[in-house]
Each structure stands twice: as C-alpha cells, then as structure tokens.
C-alpha cells in the first residue's frame, strides 16, 4: 500500500486521499467529462455512483508503474503491434510529472514510412481526430487535408526507423490514433481494419487525490466502431423516428449522434457483439431499448417508463430550443426537448396540449426587421477520402442471364375476336389508319379509317367492338388545328343518331348495331365459341373540312363509360384542311409510336394523368405479347416518358387533375413498370428500370392538396386572391406537377435567406439541368392556374413556415420525385434487406459530402445488396435509382480533384455500371480484370511500370465496353427520339441531343470521366506515352478527317493526304495517296493494315489521348509535316501548301515503288498433293515453307500434317460441264465490277463461287491425301458438305474489295490470281501467336517481336476482335528474357472445336516487295465462336513465371525458323493445353 498522496492499485480499485473542496470540484469535472459518473462530496472525500462506465480495465500488453513522490511520478506504457511480413511497430509512452506526454514509435519495416496520425482529447477537443498545434509537430510533419498529420519516420540508432512525439501542456491528450503509409509503394497499414489506438493517460487524476473506484468493467479503450455498424445504427434510428424528411445538415448531425449513441452504450457496458445483434435485426431495436431501460440485462435499478412523446413534437421542441440558444452550430437539443416534454406529460398535460402549444405560430417581436442571414459558406472542395474497405465479390456473379422477353405463347398472339379484322385492315390498301383499343375484361375496339378514292375523296370510319353490352358512340369533331369539340355536320350522322342532350348539344349519340349481317363479322369464333360483334360506321363526303373525330363510348344505360387512358378517343380524318393534312403520325411506321403521337397531338384534353394511364395501357399490351420486339417497344415508351419528364410535352391541356387522381395514375404506371421489370431481362429490363426515373412514385398524393391548406390555416394565412401563396395553393389544388418540388425548394430557400427574392429565382433557375428544364417566370405564368406573383416574406412566421414546408417538401418528393434518396428510402423502409441499412445510413448522412470515395463505395455496396431483391419491386427499384444517382453525382464532383488517385473510384464505378446495365457480361469481365490488378493500381497509388502496363490494358478493355454500352443506347433510342420528337414538335436542338443526354446522365459517363483522370498517369508510369508508332516514318500531307478508314479505303487522293481516322479495325486497306494515318484505335501491330502501312512506308500511329487528336482535327484542310521522335512520339507543324508540289508526301524516306508482276500457274493435274509433292507452280509459299522446315527445327517445335488443293483447281472445277452456267454468270459479274464502291458487285461474285459444284474426283483425292497425312477425314456427308463449303469460301475470298484495291495499287490484275488451299487439322489452341523475327516497329534485326492471344490466331490478323494482344520483344542474344510491351486487352477469344482449317495460299500473297498476307481468308470447317476472355483466371497474366517461359519459347521458335530459312520471317502458330508449340505457317516478313 502506497502512502496517501500517491497512486495505489489494489486488484481493481484506486484509492485516493482526501482533497480540498476545490480539488473535489475539479475531480467531478474530470470524471463527468471522461467517464460519465455522478460525484458527490462526503465526510471522507468524494463518493460516486456509476451511471455509465464503472472503471478502467488495464489493456492487454500494458504495463503500469507508480512512483511514490508525486512531483517525480512517471507512468510508462509499452505495446507492440504486428505489421505484415513479420514486422511490428513498438510504442512507448512516458508521462511526465506535469502531465506532459512523450510517445516513441519504432519499427524494423524497410519501407519509406509516414506516420498518419491525430489525437483524441486535449486542447479544445470537439470529437474525432484533433490535430495538435504546430509546436507539437516533429520535423517534416505536414497536415493532410486538415484531417490528419503526416510525419516521416527517421533512421533509428541500432537499425530500423522511429518517430518521437511530444505532447506538452494543453496538448496532452487521451488517445493517439494512427496508421502507417509506405510512400514508396502507396501501401497503407492499419490494425485489423481499424486505426492503431493508443491510450495516453493511465491515471485520471494526480496522485495527491484519494478515492475508491471500481475498475472491473470499464475498458481503458473503447473498441473501434466499424463504419458499417455506424451506418446501420444511423439508419435504425432514422427508421425508429418515422423516416422523417431531413435536410443534408440534419442528416449529417443525426449520423454523428448515432456514433455518440453507440459510444454511450459501450460505456454503459453493452458489448460490441450485442450492438451488432441489434444492427442485424436479431434483437428488435425498440424492444432492446425497452429491455435495457427496464434494467433487464444491465446493472442498476429499473427506471420508471418515460411517457411516450411523438418524435415530431420532439423535433419541433428541439428546433425551438436551438433557436432560443442562438442557433449554435452543431448543437443537439433533442434530448433536452424530450425530457422537457416528458416532464410536462407527467405534470398532467396531454399530447394534444403539447401539439397545440408547439404547432401554433410562434410570433416574433413586433417591428423586428427581417434578419439578413449571412450567405452560406462556399462548399468544401471535393476530396477523394479513404476507402471503407469493400467486400470481395465475384463480378461474374453479376452477369444477368438472358431470359425470354415474353413467353412464346404470348409472342404468338392469342386468338382474339378482332384479330382477323385487324389483319384484313392491315392488308387493305384503302385503309389509311387503324388502331385497336383495350376496353377492359379482354374486350377491344377496332377503329379503321378508309379512303377508297384517295385522301381527297370520301372517307369511311368504322368502329367495331366485341363488348357484350349495347354501346353508344358519344362523339363530336374538330376542325383545323383546334382541339375544340364541335357538333358534327348532320350529313355524316349514322342512322339512329341524335343530339346527346337536346338541340343545344355539341355531341351526338350514335348507337352501335349488330354486325352479324356484315360478311367480315358473320362467323367470328374464339376457342370454338362464336363472338357477337357490334359496329357503327361514319361516312364523310369528299370536300369536308374535318380534321378529326373526338369521342367516348358509353353503355346504352350510361352506367359505363370508356375513355382512352382517361382522355377522349381521337381519330384523324384525312382529306380535310391543309392544317389537318400535317398528320403528326404520318411517316411513323411503328404502330405503338403512332398511337403515342396521336394521343399527344390530337387529344383535346391531355395531362400527366392521361399520359400515365395511356402508358400503363401500352405497357400492359406489350407484356401481353402485343409487340414483336418488346425491347424496342419499351425503349419507345421510355423515350416518350423522358420527353415528358424533360418538360418537352405539355403537362396540362384543357383539363384539371386533382392530386389524388394524378397519384392514382402514377401509382398504376409505376406498378406496371415494375411488373415489366419482373417480366423481362437484359436490355428490355434496363429500359423498364429507366422508365421509373421519368415518373414520380405517386405516394400520398391527396396530402399534396390537403396539407398546403393545413399549413395555411395553422399559420393564419388566408386564402386570399392576389397573393403568391394562394396562386400556388390553387395550382396544387387543381393540377400538381413535378414543378411544385422546385417551387417548394425555392420558397424554403427564400425563407431561410430572410426573404431574399434573388435566392427564390436562383433556386428555380438551378432546379433544371440542363437549362431547358429550369422553372422560369414564363413557365410559372403558363400554368393553367398561373403563378404570376412573387412570394411574401412572412417575417413573423418565417421559422414556423420553414419547418412546415420542409415536411411538405417530403410529401411533394414522395409523389413527384421517385428517385429522390430520402423519399425512396422512406418508401422502401419496410422491404429493405438488412445488409443494406448500414450503407444506406451512411449515404443518407453524407450524400452531399465533399469526401467522395467512401460515399461512392457505400452507395454501390448498398446497390449490390439490393440487387437480388429488385425484380419487380417498385420501391426498391426507386431506391436503387437514387443510389445510382448519388454515386454518379459524387464521382462527377470528385473526378477532377482526385487526380491519379481517382483510380480508387474505377472499381466502384465499374460495379455501378455493371449493376445498371442489362447486357452486362463484358462489363463483368472488365470488373473482374480490374479487381485482379495490384492494390497500387486499384487504390489509386503509384504503380510500377509492370503494374501500370497491366492497368492500361484493362482500361483499354473498359473503354471499349463503355463505348459499346453507350453506342447500344444511342443506336436504340436515337432513331426513336428523332421520329417521336419531330412528330411532337420538339425543338430540333433538343431532339438532336436527346440520346447524348441520356448517355451523359447515366453511370457510364461518370466512369469515363474517372478513366480520363487516371489514364495519363498510368500511361506515364507504364512508359507508354500518348503515341504508339506502328509504322514510324515522317510524312507531309493535307489533313482530312474521316469517321472510319473503311469508308475511304477505295478512294484515290489526288495529293498526299494525312488521314485522321476515328475508327480503324485492322483489316482495311490504306487508300492510294494517303501518307499518314493517325487514329485513337489501337489495331494489332501485326494486323493487315499495320503490315500494309509499313510496307507502303505510310506513317501509322495510334494516339491514346484526346488532346493531340483534337489539335490535328482542328487543322483539317491544312498541310502538316509530321515527324516521329526518338521518344516514340509525333510532332507536327503547319507548312505552306506549296511544299506539296511534286512531293510524294513521305520525304526522303518514301522509296519509289517497284513494278510487280505475277506468274499465272497452271493446274498440275492433281486435285490434292501432300507435303512431299509441294513445288513451285503447284502450291503457294505457305505450303512450301512448311515443307521446307521439316528436319530443320528443334524437336519441341511441331509442324502440323498438311495437304494442299493446288493452283488451278478452282478454275478447273469451274470449267466442268456441271458448272457451265455458273461460269458464264461469274464472267459477266466480274466484268461488271466497278473501279470504286465495288463491294456489292464482289459480294455477288462470292455468292456465285459458293454455288460451284465440287468435282467428285476432288473430294476423293482430298480424302486419300488426308488419310495418308494422318489428317482426320470428315466422317459423314454432312461433315463433307461443311468441309467443301470451307474450301469454296477460300476460293471465293479472291473476290474481296481489300484484295482488289491492294492489287490494283501495285498494277496487278486480280484475275491473274490463283488460289491454292492448304488443309490442316485445327490444333486445339489454348493460345495462338504471330512472330516477326525483325522488330516491325523499329526494323531492328536483333529483336524478335511477338503477339500472343487466347484462342485462335485469327483474333490477331483478321481485325475481327478489337483490342491489343500480349506483345513482347526479346533480344536474340537474350531470348530467355522477353520484355512485355503491351498486355492483352481483347475482350474475346476465337475458338473452334476439333475441326479442319482451309488456309488461303495464293500466288499473290508473298511477292517480293508486296505485303499480300492477310488479304484472303482462312476458314475453319466448323464455325468459330467468340468467348469472353477471363484474364484474371488465366495463367498468362496470373502466373509471371509461366508467362515469361511461354514468351521465351515463342521467341525462340521465331529465331529457330529464321535460322532455318535464312531470312526474316512472319510466323503463325499456336500453343496446346499441354504447352506444345505448333507452327502452322510461315512466310517472308514484309
């Protein structure tokens, strides 16, 4: 026992001596601040009763020592934390006699470490990490975004490195928090997913105090709170509060409150595990709170249950307390508010009494001027922030499996009573217009308009229905462009017609009659039962001035009325006035689109309610099999609804819709869309989901009408004309629209700004993005119930109205803004999967935050958890859309500010796109490839060259996937938007931008922005630069810009031309006169166009950055001199046009072209020859080279057995009597081939070749030769048919445009070409390669260049598979050390089952000085198929040792073949699954 005046430890108690009253007061303060205990003063000193923490428990690994003399007391703390790689970091704490703290950290880790740190407690502590003052910063310390300090470690004596921290005086703190960063690799080290957490005080008060305190249960250090738990807790508390609508600031504050609530529970002894059980829903939150309040499971006597106070009243009271306190920032008065209200209930007041007192207006002092509040602080600049540490997922699990869009039974169109009449009308040339309308209970009405004498003659309008009850046509007409309902001229009334309501009526009632006597209706049967039809016909004479027929249908007893989606039916009448001639639907062939246009243009009464009901009907029809292409149909409805949401269509015309009725229409439409989402898959499902973003959910629409009146009454605002409030009230009462959300937000901002009118108009103008969606003064005045005035300031009611309208805004958003995050979270609260809540809680609290990465990650994690529950669930779909929007908006805010660190956003945003896209298979493989990259890339750090190369290849693949997804959207909806937009009368500029706006508003655009921020740094780290030189020569020419190189490959430029081609596949021909091709595409270095460019000495370069290409495009029509640099780039300068005179465009490097000639071989008299019979004039160079390699290569290089159908075999077969007619047709077709644009004529030639009858002798000899060479022979007539088709396909490839143009350029007649065909077994390739034994990019003879792909080699040479191959170079004196220059980015591999391949082997492919390789086809007997390549699971990328060994063996193969043949070679081969290498062909390298 240490004497009084010093610290003693007895088991788990601390004894402190008596102290003065002032000291006791100090002790109370300390204990209240740190340990939430109640302290009192007794005769023997302080006594206490624990209401929170009960004491301190020594942490594991902590040593505590005491020194008797107070003035010399030192307490030492020592702990060791593990680091990866068997390293550790050791921490020592020394606490001085005056409370000063010295912390020493030491480690043997070899990295360039930085201590990322902050403290808790100390000077002016307000929670979170505190940054000590500069006097406490060790040398070299810098502030990290004002959120942490970063201190470099210094070498320590005796080895390792260390950091020393001094916290003196007021800087002395309670805890040190830190993580470590290796600046050399960008790697972060933490403690099991949390910060390293070190207590800096081991005693609470000085040794001069004496008291007794139980240390049994209170931990010295609270456990770190996982972010997911904090998010779930915030969500649970928001849900328990009734899912209130909160501002962003309120959400942030509530999130912080939830964290403090968790800490309070931990201090009271609640375990982290128990809190997790509540978060996971194993313990119901309300029951758990009640249980703990009753004392069950916790220490202490049961507390009396508190009176129940509605949360809404607590919120109001807290707001009033906050106002009374001077509106302090960050203050929370909820607890005081609840206690005060509970006390009033205990005193006898009722909840109704409290409500009346709180909800009545709170008048301000008379005459008090309107407070001019200071402008809001500028938002903080976006920061990337730190990752939440996302869960590992298998992206391939996200692939959306294709499902039948609709059942075959539905697509087959069930038997319908009016089906035959529809078909007849469709075939009737006199029928100029027809529509079928649903009448409910599976009945329909067909309207057919016929003009048998042409549009200027008489018109017959027939309405036929299978409704079983007697019906009446209640109708009128319209003239010109007027939508007014007019009385029809009596001459067109059908028999039995009469005015609907006497002589003054403008409507006519015409009864339907039985159609049994009509020939086309006499025997209509469905399922064997006869169906009776009824009909009415109107005959309109020639020369009329009618524009349309307007009508509804009623039952004869007027008990049932039928409308078209809530509006009148409208039918155009041809032949009327010129204004009516401009039928908006004319020229639109799609029946669905015509129906939409008719409703929009021809309906006299039309509102959002009518539109939504009609859309519901049309979608139901699509789901019932009413469309041959449901995807196209749903995309059409989306475009229509998108035009509506963008305010390009009227929201109200001649009709007022009460909010309740509009809400019903919205609810019906959104439920129907959700049904479509469940019934479809792939792209169709994507359009169904997108539709929800164009229409509000519906919600409690009646509350829109009721609550505005309640607000006015509660605040004593009279319903007085001539005021802004009453004008808005009348609009809301009669026709609420999404504009009301903007108006409400503007009014709230106006109130909060102290009645500043500029704020009101500013918020309205900012509400619509882009500008055409803004709510302008003109728009407000255009409403049927116009808003012409500006709002009043209501100085005496401003604060109460602000509260009221924030709640009202939630009602409006629930109705009109389905994808609003808070509104959708409220609606979906009851259906949320438990795992979503934590992520959603964080997003709700931080959705406008400037810290980007954790917000994006939480939003995507929430979407991921929702994905399995979305199908057909409207509320979850809305929430999913809202989360997508949050992630997209955050990424767009932060992409530019994140710099190279934006790499951390790529994975989440790619997953975001995966979740949103219908046909997402390729995107899923992209996501998997990105996730497989090293952490230095995916975390946005600084990768090595090798890692950056891998990342660049993945980004190339992602870029193509984004482009494909975006192009698919544009190609689908672009034509629809154009036809509908023109018919609707939408401004041309918006029609033209429609598809682009949809793409830019989607998740692909945000990802593209981030990639643009990441790519430059990655390419620099990979030493790639902006340019890739495929054919490095200088060039002089005039700049021309083309969309695709294929568009101009047959063009002859009159002067040297530099082409900027935006699309190059690799299989095009370089056009005559072209001296340079620059492109953003990256065809393989060994593709046909690449080889041709090098052979022709044409500059060919790929640019991976938009800037240089934009600069060159801006110089279109100018003359440029382009020069390659030693660093692998291109520079250019504009020069005078005169320099083109007499120039070939290539300068001194462009050699004159030699004149070529071609020998025409004669048929050798054999249909098939083996390798021993290969000779000049019999077979081509491919065959001869293979034969010549036998016995000259190492044993590990294999040659496949081969036979060849020799030169002249095709011509001999064509000359057979069986093909005499075809021969004449082919000769005529060849004569008709034009000098340009020849592809159509050449295709006709190929079709004729494919009809050639192959002689039986050819098949017989080919079979014998194959058997002798041990090549598998087709085993059936069907298999032989496929083999001979492949043979003829190779013959037919003589007639292709690229080859024709290529031969013409060098003066060769393509008729002189003869085609031998090399036949081989298809080696079942795992990989395929092409080798150039001299580096094609530099011409270096001592370097072997290889390209390797997964699957067949056609993926390299054909240009059919975009993307790069795995490219490498190896010095010939170091073939064991290949160097990768490009990693693969091809999305697909080409595969074929065990089969035969027929390879072109013509006399025109290997002429000296002419690159004829790749001009003609090689065709497999069985069809090749494209399969997605999963590089993350392939040894080629995953196993560096395997990769280097394979690349080395391939390079050695090329060198061995060059040695055997004595010249540079272009080699093709493949690798079997067991690693065996086969060479399938070789030829001299051009």
UniProtKB/TrEMBL annotation:
Binding partners and assembly: Homodimer.
First and last residue of the signal peptide: none
Cofactor: Mg(2+)
Membrane-spanning parts: none
Descriptive protein name: Pyruvate phosphate dikinase AMP/ATP-binding domain-containing protein
Domain (Alpha-glucan water dikinase phosphohistidine-like): residue spans on this chain: 1026-1139
Species of the source: Elliptochloris bilobata
Assigned keywords, A-Z: ATP-binding, Carbohydrate metabolism, Kinase, Magnesium, Metal-binding, Nucleotide-binding, Transferase
């Amino acid at each position: 026992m240490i004497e009084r005046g010093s610290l003693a430890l007895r088991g788990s108690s601390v004894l402190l001596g008596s102290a003065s009253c002032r000291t006791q007061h100090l002790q109370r303060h300390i204990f209240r601040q740190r340990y939430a205990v109640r302290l009192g003063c007794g005769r023997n000193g302080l006594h206490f009763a624990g209401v929170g923490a009960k004491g301190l428990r020594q942490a594991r690994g902590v040593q505590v020592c005491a020194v008797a003399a107070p003035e010399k007391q030192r307490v030492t703390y020592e702990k060791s934390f593990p680091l990866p790689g068997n390293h550790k970091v050791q921490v020592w704490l020394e606490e001085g006699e005056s409370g000063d703290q010295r912390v020493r950290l030491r480690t043997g880790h070899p990295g360039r470490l930085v201590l990322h740190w902050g403290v808790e407690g100390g000077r002016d502590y307000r929670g979170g990490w505190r940054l000590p003052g500069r006097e406490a910063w060790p040398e070299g310390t810098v502030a990290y975004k004002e959120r942490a300090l970063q201190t470099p470690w210094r070498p320590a004596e005796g080895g390792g490195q260390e950091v020393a921290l001094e916290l003196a005086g007021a800087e002395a703190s309670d805890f040190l928090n830190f993580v470590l960063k290796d600046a050399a690799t960008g790697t972060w080290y933490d403690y099991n997913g949390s910060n390293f957490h070190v207590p800096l005080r081991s005693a609470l008060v000085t040794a001069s105090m004496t008291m007794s305190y139980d240390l049994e249960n209170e931990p010295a250090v609270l456990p770190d709170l996982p972010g997911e738990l904090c998010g779930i807790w915030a969500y649970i508390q928001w849900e328990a509060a009734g899912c209130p609508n909160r501002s962003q600031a309120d959400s942030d504050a509530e999130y912080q409150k939830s964290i403090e609530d968790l800490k309070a529970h931990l201090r009271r002894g609640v375990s982290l595990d128990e809190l997790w059980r509540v978060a996971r829903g194993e313990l119901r939150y309300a029951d758990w709170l009640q249980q703990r309040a009753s004392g069950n499971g916790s220490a202490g006597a049961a507390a009396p249950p508190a009176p129940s106070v509605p949360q809404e009243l607590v919120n109001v009271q807290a707001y009033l307390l906050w106002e009374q306190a001077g509106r302090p920032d960050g203050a929370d008065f909820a607890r005081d508010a609840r206690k005060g209200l509970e006390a009033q209930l205990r005193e006898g007041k009722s909840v109704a009494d409290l409500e009346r007192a709180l909800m009545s207006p709170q008048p301000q002092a008379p005459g008090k001027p309107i407070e001019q509040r200071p402008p809001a602080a500028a938002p903080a600049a976006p920061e990337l922030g730190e990752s939440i540490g996302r869960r590992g997922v298998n992206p391939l699990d996200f692939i959306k499996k294709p499902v039948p869009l609709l059942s075959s039974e539905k697509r087959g169109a069930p038997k319908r009573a009016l089906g035959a009449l529809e078909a007849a009308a469709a075939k009737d040339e006199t029928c100029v217009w027809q529509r079928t309308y649903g009448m409910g209970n599976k009945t329909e009405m067909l309207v057919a308009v016929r003009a048998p004498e042409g549009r200027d003659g008489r018109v017959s309008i027939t309405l036929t229905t299978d409704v079983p009850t007697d019906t009446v046509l209640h109708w009128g007409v319209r003239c010109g462009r007027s939508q007014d309902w007019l009385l029809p001229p009596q001459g067109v009334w059908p028999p039995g017609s009469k005015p609907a309501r006497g002589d003054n009526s403008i409507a006519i009632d015409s009864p339907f009659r039985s159609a049994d006597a009509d020939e086309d209706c006499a025997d209509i049967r469905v399922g064997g039962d006869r169906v009776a039809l009824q009909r009415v016909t109107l005959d309109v004479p020639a020369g009329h001035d009618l524009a349309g027929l307007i009508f509804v249908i009623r039952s004869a007893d007027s008990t049932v009325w039928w409308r078209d989606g809530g509006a009148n039916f409208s039918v155009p009448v041809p032949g009327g006035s010129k204004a009516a001639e401009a039928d908006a639907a004319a020229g639109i062939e799609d029946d669905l689109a015509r129906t939409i246009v008719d409703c929009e243009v021809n309906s006299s009464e039309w509102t959002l309610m009518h539109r939504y009901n009609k859309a519901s009907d049309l979608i139901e029809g699509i789901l019932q099999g009413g469309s041959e292409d449901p995807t196209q149909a749903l995309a059409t409805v989306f475009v229509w609804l998108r035009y509506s949401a963008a305010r390009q269509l009227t929201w109200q015309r001649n009709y007022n819709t009460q909010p309740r009725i509009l809400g019903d229409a919205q609810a019906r439409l959104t439920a129907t869309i959700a049904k479509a989402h469940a019934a479809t898959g792939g792209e169709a499902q994507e359009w169904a989901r997108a539709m929800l973003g164009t229409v509000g959910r519906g919600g409690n629409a009646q509350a829109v009408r009721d609550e505005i009146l309640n607000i006015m009454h509660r605040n004593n605002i009279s319903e007085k004309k001539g005021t802004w409030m009453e004008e808005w009230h009348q609009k809301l009462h009669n026709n609420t629209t999404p504009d009301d959300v903007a108006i409400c937000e503007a009014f709230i901002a106006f109130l909060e700004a102290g009645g500043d009118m500029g704020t009101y108009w500013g918020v309205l103008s900012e509400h619509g993005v882009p500008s055409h969606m803004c709510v302008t003064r003109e728009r407000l005045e255009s409403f049927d119930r116009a808003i012409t005035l500006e709002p009043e300031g209501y100085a005496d009611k401003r604060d109460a109205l602000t509260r009221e309208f924030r709640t009202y805004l939630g009602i409006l958003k629930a109705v009109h803004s389905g994808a609003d995050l808070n509104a959708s979270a409220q609606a979906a609260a009851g259906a949320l999967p438990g795992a979503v809540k934590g992520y959603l809680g964080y997003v709700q609290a931080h959705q406008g935050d400037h810290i980007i990465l954790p917000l994006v990650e939480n939003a995507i994690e929430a979407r991921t958890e929702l994905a399995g529950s979305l199908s057909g669930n409207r509320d979850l779909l809305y929430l999913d859309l809202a989360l997508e929007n949050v992630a997209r908006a955050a990424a767009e805010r932060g992409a530019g500010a994140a710099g190279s660190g934006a790499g951390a956003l790529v994975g989440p945003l790619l997953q975001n796109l995966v979740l949103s896209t219908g046909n997402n298979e390729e995107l899923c493989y992209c996501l998997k490839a990105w996730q497989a990259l090293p952490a230095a890339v995916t975390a946005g750090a600084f990768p090595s060259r090798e890692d950056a190369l891998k990342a660049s290849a993945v980004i190339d693949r992602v870029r193509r996937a984004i482009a494909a997804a975006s192009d698919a959207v544009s190609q689908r909806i672009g034509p629809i938007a154009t036809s509908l937009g023109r018919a609707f009368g939408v401004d041309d500029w918006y029609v033209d931008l429609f598809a682009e706006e949809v793409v830019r508003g989607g998740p692909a655009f945000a990802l593209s922005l981030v990639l643009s921020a990441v790519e430059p740094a990655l390419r620099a780290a990979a030493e790639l630069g902006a340019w890739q030189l495929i054919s490095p020569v200088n060039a002089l020419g005039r700049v021309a810009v083309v969309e695709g190189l294929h568009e101009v490959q047959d063009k002859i430029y009159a002067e040297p031309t530099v082409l900027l081609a935006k699309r190059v596949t690799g299989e095009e021909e370089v056009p005559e006169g072209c001296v340079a091709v620059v492109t953003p595409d990256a065809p393989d270095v060994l593709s046909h166009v690449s080889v041709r460019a090098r052979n022709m000495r044409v500059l060919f370069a790929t640019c991976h950055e938009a800037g240089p290409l934009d600069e060159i495009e801006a110089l279109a029509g100018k003359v440029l001199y382009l020069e390659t640099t030693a660093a692998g780039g291109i520079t250019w300068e504009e020069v005078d046009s005169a320099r083109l005179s007499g120039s070939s465009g290539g300068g001194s490097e462009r050699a004159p072209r030699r004149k070529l000639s071609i020998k025409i071989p004669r048929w050798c008299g054999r249909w098939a020859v083996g390798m021993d019979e290969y000779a000049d004039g019999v077979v081509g160079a491919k065959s001869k080279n293979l034969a010549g390699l036998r016995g000259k290569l190492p044993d590990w290089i294999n040659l496949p057995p081969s036979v060849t159908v020799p030169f002249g075999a095709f011509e001999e077969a064509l000359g057979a009597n069986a093909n005499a007619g075809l021969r004449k047709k082919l000769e005529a077709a060849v004569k008709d081939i034009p000098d340009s644009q020849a592809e159509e004529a050449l295709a006709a030639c190929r079709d004729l070749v494919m009809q050639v009858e192959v002689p039986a002798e050819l098949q017989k000899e080919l079979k014998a030769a194959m058997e002798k060479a041990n090549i598998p022979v087709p085993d059936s007539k069907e298999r032989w048919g496929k083999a001979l088709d492949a043979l003829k396909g190779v013959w037919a490839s003589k007639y292709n445009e690229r080859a024709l143009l290529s031969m013409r350029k060098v003066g060769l007649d393509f008729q002189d070409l003869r085609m031998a065909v090399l036949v081989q077994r298809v080696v079942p390739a795992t990989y395929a390669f092409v080798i150039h034994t001299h580096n094609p990019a530099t011409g270096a003879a001592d370097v072997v260049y290889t390209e390797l792909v997964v699957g067949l080699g056609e993926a390299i040479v054909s240009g059919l598979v975009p993307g790069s191959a795995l490219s490498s170079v190896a010095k010939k004196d170091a073939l064991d050390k290949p160097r990768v220059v490009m990693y693969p980015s091809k999305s697909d591999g080409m595969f074929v089952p065990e089969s035969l391949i027929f390879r072109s082997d013509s006399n025109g492919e290997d002429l000296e000085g002419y690159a004829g390789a790749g001009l003609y086809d090689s065709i497999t007997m069985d069809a090749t198929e494209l399969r997605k390549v999963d590089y993350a699971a392939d040894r080629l990328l995953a196993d560096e040792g395997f990769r280097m060994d394979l690349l080395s063996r391939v390079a050695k193969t090329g060198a061995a073949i060059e040695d055997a043949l004595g010249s540079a070679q272009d080699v093709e081969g493949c690798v079997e699954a067991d690693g065996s290498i086969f060479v399938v062909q070789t030829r001299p390298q051009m």
